[in-house]
Design goal:
Elements lengths: L26 H11 L7 H26 L1 E4 L3 E7 L2 E6 L2 E4 L5 E7 L4 E10 L5 E12 L2 H6 L4 H18 L3 H5 L3 H16 L6 E12 L5 H70 L1 H17 L6 E2 L12 H6 L17 E2 L18 H9 L1
Parallel strand pairs: 9-10
Antiparallel strand pairs: 1-4, 2-3, 2-5, 6-7, 7-8
């Protein structure tokens, strides 16, 4: 029968024999009753009081030792400990073995060196009313453990929502062609800036390390058409690069030709200038001589001019009245003369040899063989 059931009188371990609650029992009496129940009858009150005091001290000593040992903890090298004393922030704990008063302080370790990542993806509407599926991966590191733990209910969840918001905002202000092709780097940078702007007022205690904008994809229904469009844009870029390469190849050649023509023109200019200066100098020297002997100078100029003109002529004019001897005509030398040596026409085998008499009458010409015909020789003998 239990000690507190009705009818069980005299078995109350707390000494409440009368059955009425008369206040808290005497601790010495409680220990004596417990000793009696374990077979220690007949003990004096002094021995029971000594046992109770030593037991309490022993228990208290064990509790103190356990409390001290329970306060030791360690913080890893990549972590920092956020210490709270009765719920109030008191500072950060460095890596290593530390001690805290149990039930008074609490320490929460936070990893501050590991680079964490949060993915974000979804189908989003662009500014040209097209739907595109984009994926983003945000990498961040905790810089302030206290703010990371207590500035928001869940810093990771807040960052994830901010990333999704920033990505949708940037995608909604760009065209689909830019998102799929050439504008990916600009979209990545804009998303990074927008994300930092969103999380700044929340003081999440983290820093964005990098933002990876993964290749976007069009809807599966129009994927083939977009693949063709991307291929055409790649061909366009290839043609542009080829044209630029051709331009870089042709431009130096053209510049070289221009430079050569400019140098030739400058050389021609100098040549003409020097020739003109030489003619002027020659005339300046010739004028005094002409003033001294006009007739002699005039004859000299005439002879020099005729010599210069006739030197390139392939026709020979002889005066038959001054001499009756037959003249030798060097046709082989005349045939070898190059057309560029004179301004006259090329020498023909049947070149004519004109004879001029004193009355400026023309005489019969030689044949192609260079000999006179029989009639001409008879006519010349009668004369």
């Amino acid at each position: 029968m239990a000690w507190n059931e009705p009818g069980n009188k005299g078995n109350d371990p707390w000494g409440n024999k009368g059955g009425n609650d008369k206040g808290p029992p005497d601790m010495d009496e409680v220990f004596r009753n417990l000793s009696k129940r374990f077979g220690k009858k007949g003990g004096s009150s002094n021995s029971g009081s000594g046992f109770g005091s030593k037991g309490i001290l022993l228990i208290l000593g064990i509790l103190v030792v356990v409390w001290i040992l329970s306060g030791f903890y360690s913080v890893k090298e990549a972590e920092r400990g956020v210490a709270l004393r009765f719920g109030e922030y008191v500072g950060l704990k460095d890596p290593g073995l530390q001690w805290k008063p149990t039930f008074i302080e609490e320490v929460y370790p936070v990893d501050v060196e590991t680079v964490r990542s949060i993915p974000a993806s979804g189908s989003m509407l662009t500014t040209d009313e097209n739907v595109v599926k984009v994926e983003l991966d945000v990498q961040y590191r905790v810089t302030d453990p206290y703010k990371f733990m207590f500035s928001a209910v869940d810093a990771n969840s807040s960052l994830r929502e901010a990333t999704d918001s920033a990505l949708r905002y940037v995608v909604g202000h760009n065209k689909m062609d830019d998102i799929l092709t050439t504008g990916r780097e600009a979209i990545r940078n804009d998303t990074w800036k927008e994300l930092e702007r969103i999380i700044e007022p929340y003081n999440l205690g983290l820093t964005i390390v990098d933002v990876n904008f993964l290749p976007a994809r069009p809807p599966e229904e129009v994927k083939d058409a977009f693949d063709d469009a991307i291929s055409a844009q790649e061909d366009e870029q290839r043609f542009i690069r080829e044209a630029e390469a051709y331009s870089r190849e042709v431009e130096p050649k053209a510049r070289g030709v221009v430079e050569r023509m400019a140098q030739e023109a400058e050389a021609y200019k100098q040549k003409v200038t020097l020739e003109a200066q030489g003619q002027v100098a020659k005339f300046d020297k010739l004028l005094p001589e002409y003033q001294k002997a006009p007739e002699v100078t005039r004859q000299r100029l005439y002879i020099d001019t005729m010599q210069q003109v006739m030197s390139g002529n392939n026709k020979v004019i002889v005066d038959t009245k001054s001499s009756g001897n037959m003249l030798y005509l060097p046709l082989d030398k005349m045939m070898d003369r190059k057309p560029n040596d004179s301004k006259s026409q090329p020498v023909r085998p049947d070149s004519e040899i004109q004879q001029l008499n004193s009355n400026s009458t023309l005489t019969p010409t030689y044949q192609n063989t260079g000999r006179m015909t029989r009639e001409e020789r008879m006519r010349q003998g009668r004369e």
